[in-house]
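Case study 2.
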Amino acid sequence: MPLAQPDAGLQHYSDHLHMLRRWLSPLEAWLAPYSDGPQGESRLPAVARVALIDADLADPALHGVHAETRAEDDTVWPIAASAAYRWGVTYVIEGSQLGGAVLYQRLAGPLAPHPLRYLRSGAEGPGPRWRSFMLALREGVKSEGEIADACRGACDAFDRILAMR
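Prediction:
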């Protein structure tokens, strides 16, 4: 991952954002039409993650930094995916915010004045949202079959982002 470098700078952050955008944009579009499981009525408030990425990429602090131009991920996510599978995919998306908070703490000073909107999880940090997500996941994924399907979704989402490095 671009920000894993010990001397990560703005170019690494830009590369990281471009990679995440290529991964998240198709996932958000795929998840949007569903109204059950993690996209059901009792879901957490939506987070416009791609919009945060776009705002970070447009920030003046990145002026002059080389912009990556690779195409979005062309993975075809299953239209008939079960709610459990989507819980697994969403688990990876939500979990990535925990790592983002750690990166924010490490990089806020060195990459200033860039605001690192995507990595900053709000005033309370990602912990409360993650706890709420895990409670909802436990309610939504219970049977052995659902757990296996959620694991497949999580593995597929994680494998896709790793393939983009």
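The domain at 2-163 is CATH 1.20.910.10 (Heme Oxygenase; Chain A).
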